[in-house]
Design a protein that fits this description.
- The radius of gyration is 21 Å and the shape is globular.
- Strands 7-6-8-9-10-14-15 form a seven-stranded mixed beta sheet, sandwiched between helices.
- Helix 1 (about 50-65) crosses helix 11 and helix 5 runs parallel beside helix 6 (about 180-195).
- The protein has helices at about 50-65, 85-100, 110-115, 120-125, 155-170, 180-195, 215-220, 235-245, 265-270, 290-305, 310-330, 335-340, and strands spanning about 35-40, 75-80, 105, 125-130, 145-150, 170-180, 200-205, 225-230, 255-260, 280, 345, 350-355, 360, 365-370, 380-385.
- It has about 400 residues and is α/β, with parallel strands linked by helices.
- Strand 8, helix 8 (about 235-245) and strand 9 (about 255-260) form a beta-alpha-beta unit.
- It has two domains: about 15-150 and about 285-360, Response regulator (Rossmann fold, 3-Layer(aba) Sandwich); about 155-280 and about 365-390, 3-Layer(aba) Sandwich (Rossmann fold).
- It is built from twelve helices and 15 strands.
């Protein structure tokens, strides 16, 4: 799909306001809107996702406001873009709090960005509800009192894939992952899982973010192996998909699994190059439940397309925030933090729990396969398996000290 133009403010504010210097804004007013800061990235390969995150924020805020907001107040999303480094993410988060009047932050935060922002939240007197990152460290040694997360971490994704690894019968594997924190973490977890099933990893390659020529990687991955795991995101994933097609790389494997690769919003760009790929998928629009059906209808009305997993994760982050504010009867950060820890609330995923021990949402995950659409003109996903969070999430880590 073609990303829509980036909006700087959503929920009724004028576009472009945060791109200018803003005065310090008090967050003590309990009569105005409840401002939620939404981080986006406007350069590099992750920029492809920015407009989608903004769409998710707008629909989520509109949905909550249509259902009464919280404490008689409406929500407002305040978008702040930055260049895509951990340092610029910290600066953007600080700007949202100190100049944008936001006590709550979410948005487009890869693991390295969340790791950078999380330790700053206490001094900013802000809460972050992460709907983007996957790194395990954020629920173990890097956990922070003001940091919460609704996405599925790498270890949960690996647990979901374990059954497929076993069913595949593959004994030898090749891996290609991004050369930054989340890629190395996932590669390590997946390797451990393969070895636990009696298999071996022959090649484990790491490609720098922004790689445009994957030729040398494809050559190395062409060495015989039963199965391939691809962990490449955004533009990097699109480039790899198209280039592997030229070499017939996927045809050399019995099984190709994806982690953040061949995602729903990328299918139109990747086309037939990812047919048959099995991809972990935490959400699909046809999942059961009245709340999900209502959300899908609202999203289709707004954007004439079905929501994807990032849209859903944004919605759940906002639903959990609203539930915590209602429970706390306040938007004060300490009160909302206390309400969020251990909170059980109904969402589009059903009733879920924000685990108090590590501020991690215990929710479902699944595996889907890329197949042809019924008319044969495109590709889509078919869910092959969905497991509840109770069967997938590891117990709280002793390394997490909250």
């Amino acid at each position: 799909m073609t990303p829509v133009s980036r909006r700087t403010l959503l929920g009724g504010a004028a576009a472009g306001a945060l791109s200018m210097a803003l005065p310090m804004v008090s967050r003590a007013d309990d009569s105005g809107t409840i401002k939620v800061g939404v981080l986006t990235i406007d350069s590099g390969p992750f920029a492809l996702y920015a407009s989608l995150v903004e769409d998710s924020a707008k629909v989520g805020v509109d949905y909550l406001n249509a259902h009464g907001g919280a404490l008689g107040r409406k929500f407002e999303a305040v978008i702040q873009a930055h260049s895509g480094t951990p340092a610029s993410a910290i600066a953007a988060a600080t700007k949202l709090v100190q100049q944008g009047g936001c006590s709550f932050i979410t948005g487009q935060t890869p693991t390295s960005h969340s790791l950078a922002i999380a330790p700053k939240l206490d001094s900013l007197n802000a809460i972050m509800i992460d709907m983007y990152s996957q790194g395990d460290d954020l629920m173990t040694k890097a956990c922070q009192p003001n940091f919460f997360r609704v996405t599925t971490p790498d270890s949960v994704y690996a647990a979901m894939l374990r059954a497929f690894v076993k069913k595949s019968g593959a004994k030898t594997w090749n891996l290609i992952s991004p050369d930054y924190a989340v890629g190395h973490t996932f590669a390590a977890r997946f390797t451990e899982m393969v070895q636990a099933e009696g298999g071996t990893v022959q090649e484990s390659l790491f490609a720098p973010q922004g790689t445009t020529d994957f030729g040398s990687y494809i050559t190395q991955l062409s060495k015989p192996a039963d199965a391939l795991m691809v962990t490449l995101y955004m533009a990097d994933g699109n480039s790899f998909a198209k280039q592997q097609k030229q070499f017939g790389l996927f045809d050399k494997y019995k099984t190709v699994l994806g982690n953040g690769f061949a995602t729903e919003f990328q299918l139109s760009a990747q086309g037939d190059s990812v047919l048959g790929v099995l991809n972990g998928l935490s959400y699909h629009y046809d999942m059961p439940g009245e709340d999900n059906a209502a959300f899908v209808k609202a999203y289709e009305t707004a954007y004439k397309r079905k929501p994807i997993y990032t849209d859903a994760d944004m919605m759940v982050a906002l639903e959990m925030l609203r539930a915590a504010i209602v429970k706390a009867k306040s938007t004060d950060v300490p009160a909302v933090r206390a309400a969020l820890a251990g909170l059980k609330a109904p969402t589009i995923y059903g009733t879920v729990e924000m685990r108090a021990a590590d501020h991690t949402l215990i929710r479902q995950h699944g595996v889907a396969q890329v197949v042809k659409t019924e008319d044969g003109k495109g590709t889509t996903f078919v869910m092959r398996d969905i497991e509840p969070g109770s069967a997938l999430f590891p117990p709280p880590s002793a390394e997490c000290k909250l």
